[in-house]
Amino acid sequence: MVESHSRQLASKWVKTAALLSNTLLAAHVPPTRIYSAENLKSMLNEHEMVVIKPVCGAGGHGVIKVQKEGSGYTYTYYSKRSYASSFDRLYSALSRAKKKRSYLIQKGIRLATIGGRPIDYRVKYVKTDTGWVYRSMVGRLAKPGLFVTNLCRGGTMMTAAQGISRSLSSSAVASKKQEMRTLTVTATRVLETKFPGIGHLGFDYGIDKNGKIWIFEVNTRPQ
């Protein structure tokens, strides 16, 4: 039996800070900061590509990818790509798009792809009377033209094994799935210590072109 009332934590920032408190997990969390003009400028200078997303939000809603391009910047919101010739113009455009919502900035990860489309992974982990169990581990392939992989945005679901073998290699399947499980167990232990009462977690993992696994976020209301 699953816990019927598991604790929910809407803030991505609170959960990210908890993961960063653990050395093993911190190495797998992309550099993340609270959104501000100063943080955006320094992160773009350092990483050239960032993703900004609402501190509270789900389903890929409101997520914007920003890249340095020559002397200007491109930003992609859903499938619409726009150009800003200066940082001030970029910041104004993003302020209009984000409205008054709190955002955070995360280093952009160049994910492994299938046919040029990025893929990431969702691991559902649930607490039952006998302990934590895996409910699913699936790959989510972005709809052509989109960078978000959410199924509600037209992403395609496949098994994690299919995703790993098609985007990396079939020889990587067992080790990458095991690594995601190890990270899931460690992260759950950290989160449960800090937030007693959680019982239903959805981990979003990405694997970059070099095969490194990244923890993008942990959902306490996984869709």
Outline the fold blueprint:
Layout: H1 12-20, H2 23-26, E1 32-34, H3 37-47, E2 49-54, E3 64-69, E4 72-77, E5 80-84, H4 87-98, E6 103-107, E7 113-114, E8 117-128, E9 131-141, E10 156-159, H5 160-167, H6 173-194, E11 200-207, E12 213-219
Antiparallel strand pairs: 1-6, 2-3, 2-6, 3-4, 4-5, 7-8, 8-9, 8-11, 9-10, 11-12
Helix pairs in contact: 5-6
Overview of the molecule:
This protein has 223 residues and is an alpha+beta fold. The protein has six helices and twelve strands. The strands form two sheets. It has a six-stranded antiparallel β-sheet with strand order 1-6-2-3-4-5, with helices on both faces. The protein is globular and about 55 Å long. 27% of the residues are buried.
Highlighted features:
six-stranded antiparallel beta sheet; alpha+beta
| Molecular shape | globular
The overall pLDDT average reads 90
User: By helix and strand content, what is the structural category?
Assistant: alpha+beta
The share of residues in helices is 25-40%
Continuous helix count: 6
Major sheet: order of its strands? 1-6-2-3-4-5
Ranges where pLDDT stays below 50 over 5 or more residues in a row are: none
Q: What are the secondary-structure elements, in order, as H or E?
A: HHEHEEEEHEEEEEHHEE
Number of strands: 12
The N- and C-terminal alpha carbons lie at a distance of: 19 Å
Compute the CA-based radius of gyration: 17 Å
Q: How much β-strand is present in the residues?
A: 25-35%
> Biggest sheet, in brief?
6 strands, antiparallel
